[in-house]
Amino acid sequence: MDFHVTLQGRRDLSGQIYRELRAAILDGRLRRGERLPPTRELALRLDVSRNTVSVAYEWLTAEGLLEGRTRAGSFVQGEASPRRGRTGVASGVRLRARAFWSALPDEPTPRAPAAYDFRVGTPDASHFPFETWRRLVARQLRAAALPAGYAEAAGHAGLREAVARHVGVARGVRAEADDVLITHGAQQALDLAGRVLIEPGDCVAVEDPGYPPARLLFQSLGARVVPVPVDAEGLDVGALPDAARLVYVTPSHQFPLGMPMSPARRSALLDWAKQRDAVILEDDYDSEFRFGGRPLETLHGLDRSGRVLYVGSFSKVMLPELRLGFLIAPPSLQRELRWAKRVMDWHSQLPAQAALARFIDGGMLARHVRKMRREYEERHERVLEGLTRHCGDWLQPLPSMAGLHLSATFHRGGLKLEREAVARAQAADVGLVTLSRYCAGPRAKAGLVIGYGAMPTSRIAEGLRRLGSCLATASGS
């Protein structure tokens, strides 16, 4: 292992090397079993004699921190000491982040999933064709398949063509390969659009309840974010602020409530944007998993004035860990969006992009989506059945015919019952998400968002039976 050693002057060189290596072993930077550089090699790198390094190694060996093995080298033998805090970090000056970031709460500590895990937004990885994907990626990791140097910011040409065909067939989106920009998931697509379109102080309208990461992202860019209420037809266009420069919507499967935006509202939103010279950012969330009803045309497909940017992702239909998504934009913004992508991270990783292009072109994505649609439809029906049987006295499921979750509101009890139910469910090893966490306005909706992507079908009934018991106890307390 290469190891950085800093020497000051020409005095006590063995001692300086000894102290730096000793400190690295005791604070865990060098771990037990790791091999140190040979004395000759380290001496050449430090421009000292080999004997100087040998003396330092001998002192460490005498302390039991190193072990010399014949014809093998010197290996770390000691263990790191328990640390009481951060060491070796400058602490004299407290650097200040922007007020927006300092005001955010600490990130939640990751916890093991509950036995009955109704998390939201997590697909079932157990059905993913890992062997097929592994072969596709391995083929792209060969030297002949990799480009020499950096690639185009817009993404792999084959994947952009495949995405344009895929959304054209699956969603009726009219797009060419040049209209597609490959991103690290939907979140980066939103970020790129915001960077290009939003000036500090601009008004951005978002759904309420809605997707918190989008809201926080626009706020981080200096926008004045205004939550707009959602009803049974989707976003209330009449409540949009006149000053809004950008409107973020999930019209195919509103997140988190689940209803699609009605045709009348879609037309009204497009007219509103045209009259006010605004931009619509359409997140086609969970549209691949529709279980019934006539699919509605996307806002992008209805748009005739080039005001809609269309965002998609492969996180739900494949795996969130792949971090692959896309942004489809009108020609008037493509140059600026590509520059924003280049400035942000140059381009997304190419082997995965090329593999995904083959996955789509070979029909494997379509087959996987069909398979998972059937699986999730059964889970959706099981959740509705279980909510009615075990939780009907307290919860009213909201109409939803797509996606990996459904929402339910409380008949009574409001936010107090919501808090009590989630606390008791956690104790019963049932993982839940509250509806109120997605609300930004002053009147939060009380309810639960029941995800079934990560929940095996066989465990849904028992999980909802436990939830019903928790609700019964919480409502009586």
TrEMBL record:
Q: Please give one Gene Ontology molecular function term for this protein.
A: transaminase activity
> Which positions fall inside the HTH gntR-type domain?
11-79
UniProt KW Transcription keyword:
yes
Q: Which UniProt keywords apply?
A: Aminotransferase, DNA-binding, Pyridoxal phosphate, Transcription, Transcription regulation, Transferase
> Pfam families attached here?
Aminotran_1_2 (PF00155), GntR (PF00392)
- This protein is called PLP-dependent aminotransferase family protein
Q: Does the keyword Transcription apply?
A: yes
Organism of derivation: Corallococcus llansteffanensis
Domain of life of the native organism:
Bacteria
Which family does the similarity line name? In the C-terminal section; belongs to the class-I pyridoxal-phosphate-dependent aminotransferase family.
Which SUPFAM superfamilies does the record match to this protein? PLP-dependent transferases, Winged helix' DNA-binding domain
What InterPro entries does UniProt report for this protein, alphabetically? Aminotransferase_I/II_large, HTH_trans_reg/aminotransferase, PyrdxlP-dep_Trfase, PyrdxlP-dep_Trfase_major, Tscrpt_reg_HTH_GntR, WH-like_DNA-bd_sf, WH_DNA-bd_sf
Point out the coiled-coil segments of this chain. Answer: none
